[in-house]
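Single Protein Entry

Contents — chain, fold
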Amino acid sequence: MFKLFFSKIKKRIIEVWEHAGFQKYFKNTGWFFLSKISSMVLSFVSTVFMVRYFLPEQYGLLNYAISYVGLFSFISTLGLDSVLYRDLVKEPEKKEVFFGSALVIRLVGAALGFLFIASSLFIFPSNTDAFYIILIIAGIYFFQPFSIASLYFQAKVNSKIIAIYGFVVTAILSLLKILFVFLHISVIGFALIFLVEPILFGLAYCFAYYLAGESLMKWKYSFDIVKRLLNDAWPLMFSGAFAVIYMRIDQVMLKHYLDNYAVGIYSVAAQLSEYWYIFPLIIVNSLVPAIVNARTAGEEVYKRRKAYLFKLIIGISVFIALIFTVFADFFIRVIYGANYLGAVGVLRIYVWGGLGMSLGLVVNQLFIVENRTKMYFVANFLSMLVNVILNIVMIPKFGMSGAAFATLIAYSFIPMPYFIFKSKSKGNITVYEAVS
C-alpha cells in the first residue's frame, strides 16, 4: 500500500515539475528558495547554540515569553498584509496612500497590543524575570509595521531584493545569538535580540524601498482607505487571532499547568518539527501565483493546478514526518543534547501536525484568492477552539504529550472547511480529487 502511495506521489511530483507553467515559477523563484534555505540554516545553527547553552528551565522561560507576546500579535498586525498585498497588485498607482494608511493602522495596533500585554501582566502577575522579558519582546510591535515596505517588492514579483536583505539580517541576528552564548549573557539579554530583529528588518526593507527609487516621505494617510482596508481585513484579523492562539496557546498552558522545564522540552520538539515548514511555505508562495493566473485560462486549468499543489504538499509532508518519527531520538540527542531527550516522544507526535499545517497554508491562500475570507475565519476559529479545549483536557492528564496531540488534532482541522463547504464559484475540488 505504501509503495503504491509513494509511487503515485512520485509520479505526480514529476508531472508538476515537467509542467511548463510550474517550471516557469520555480525558475523565477529558485534564488528565493536558496535564500530562504540559507536563512533557515543560519537561524537553526544559532538556535542550537542557544538551546544547548540554556537549561530547559531557562529556555522554557524565554519561549513562554515569546508565546505570551505572540498571543496578542493579531492586535498589532490587524490582518492587513494580505489585503495590502492584494490591493498593491490591483492598483499599484495608489501605493503611497495604501502604505501610508496601512502604516498608521499598524502603529495604532502596535500601541494597543503593547497596552493589552502590559495590562495583563498587572492583572495576572508573573515573576520578575518573566515580567521584564515579556515587556522587552512586546516592544517588537512598534517596529514590525515598517516591514510592510517589503510588500512593494512582492507585489512587483521582485522578491529577490527582500530575500537578499532578509538573509543579511538573519546572518547578523544569528551571529548575535552565538556571540551572546560565548559571552554568557542572561536570558533577559537574549530577549533583546528578539527586539532588535524587527528593527533590522524594518530598516533593511525601507532602505531597499529607497534604493528602488521610492520614498517613504510620499506615503499618505487617507481615512477612506483606512476604512476600506479595515473592512476587508477584519475577517483576516480575527483569523490571525485564532491562528496565533492555536499556535502559541500550548506553550502558555504548559507553563500554567506544569512549569518552565516542560515548556523548554516541548519548545525544542515544536521548533524542530516546524523548521521544515519552510519547504511547503516556499512551494505555496512560489506556485500560488501560477494557480491564480490559471483562473484566467479556464476553470479546468485552475482546478488541475490546485490538485497538483495539494498532491505535492501531501507527499512532502508525509515523507518528512516519517523521517522525523523514525529518527526522533537521534535528532534530539545529536542536535540538542541529553538535557532535552524528554522531547523525543513529543517530537514523534507533533511532527505529524505538519501535514494539516501545510495543507492549511494552501487552503488559506485559496480562501483569499477565491474571496472566501469568511471561510478562512471559520477554519482558524475551529482549529483554535479545538486546540484550546483539548489542551485544557489533555495537558493535566498526559502532560507534554497531551499538548502535542492537541496540536496535531487542531492542525488537522485547518484545511477541512475548504473541502467541506463548497464555494459558490467554480474551481473547488474534493478530497478524493486532491489525493487520487
In short: The mean pLDDT is 81. The two ends are 13 Å apart (CA to CA). DSSP finds 21 helices and no strands in the chain.
